[in-house]
Amino acid sequence: xxxxxxxxxxxxxxxxxxxxxxxxxxxxxxxxxxxxxxxxxxxxxxxxxxxxxxxxxxxxxxxxxxxxxxxxxxxxxxxxxxxxxxxxxx
Length: 90
Fold this sequence. Notes:
Blueprint: E1 14-20, E2 27-32, E3 39-45, E4 52-58, E5 68-73, E6 83-89
Antiparallel strand pairs: 1-6, 2-5, 3-4, 3-6
């Protein structure tokens, strides 16, 4: 999903992306910034507790506007059926 900006994310917050198809995707990419301690983003399917497809480690970048791009391998669900994806912040 392109062109979205999310701010003020805390531990246990969740983003939902509806009806996403992933059969040919092999990686996930995000731009992140952290002036705090950093954290991890888990990409899950079906629900926030659903199967784990990918994980990003987010290190502090030195400011809320100091963006970096992170990439990670994606373990797609193997189906062309659209499903909801969840970004879980931990």
